Amino acid sequence: MRYAQLVMGPAGSGKSTYCSNLVKHAEDSRKVINVVNIDPAAEYFDYEPLADIRELIHVDDAMEDEDMKFGPNGGLVFCMEYLLENSDWLKEQLGEDVDDDYILFDCPGQIELYTHMQTIRQLTDLLKNWNFNICAVFLVDAQFMVDGPKFLSGTMAALSVMVNLELPHVNILTKMDLLSKSARSKLDNYLDPDPQYLLTDIEACHSKWGRNHHRLSEAIGRIIEDFSLVRFIPLDLRDDENVADVLMTIDNILQYGEDADVKTKDFEYPDENDREDSFS
Ligand SMILES: Nc1nc2c(ncn2[C@@H]2O[C@H](COP(=O)(O)OP(=O)(O)O)[C@@H](O)[C@H]2O)c(=O)[nH]1
Ligand SMILES: [Mg+2]
């Protein structure tokens, strides 16, 4: 069996940083995790990719083509379709089917690829055929989740991805190191979802939406709570234990290292003094 995390999320949510940190974390515990970049518009990442879509096609190739004249979004979709048409290339880059192979796929930041388009779904079908167990990992920048309306909208985005891809799925709040203490404690109240708390907060924002759609917001909050539909795991990359917990959660879902003991642990914010200065 091979194992894959499909690392998705909006542009700038921290996908490439997450991948490179996981690689380093694995190295420290003498494991090998590889990363495949499938973002044809990637400008920077600091891991050594096992494969890089830009060697097959770069978004600029699609945009500079005189006949096609794509913009950035059309160009990206074209590149993803091109990747699927050239799946032999990807298969070759992924190499032999080695047991316990662990690969992160660093995906592009266009959210429509995950919420309603079929290309990523087709890619996951290919990976399944190539003997991969897959976990979808959806990253959201924690800074965009610290008030009621934003939390609700981030939750709905995550839910769209879950419904569209139909894969085992984990949602992660990235960049926890950037939140103030008060923002963190506010976020804590949402993480154990209480629709009433969320609703009070939405109303407190005095938005027209909050006033006009009180019952709709309440109903959405309640459905999410009642069906345990969407959960978010906070991630502070400076905290090794937090990274290990997130990885263990995903590994359990992937059934990776089945022999290892299953250990669950509530997230605890790291002590200020235990932190290193940098998250990377
Ligand atoms: N402080 C902080 N910055 C981060 C973190 N993760 C990513 N970033 C920064 O956010 C920006 C976008 O990150 P990147 O990984 O390229 O996002 P991507 O577009 O989703 O691949 C970069 O400037 C990163 O240095 C984090 O956990 N903490
Ligand atoms: Mg990236």
Automatic annotation (TrEMBL):
CDD domains: GPN3. Keywords: GTP-binding, Hydrolase, Nucleotide-binding. The keyword Nucleotide-binding applies. InterPro entries: Gpn, Gpn3, P-loop_NTPase. It holds the Pfam family ATP_bind_1. One of its GO terms (molecular function) is GTP binding. Belongs to the GPN-loop GTPase family. Binds to RNA polymerase II (RNAPII). Small GTPase required for proper nuclear import of RNA polymerase II and III (RNAPII and RNAPIII). May act at an RNAP assembly step prior to nuclear import. This is GPN-loop GTPase 3.
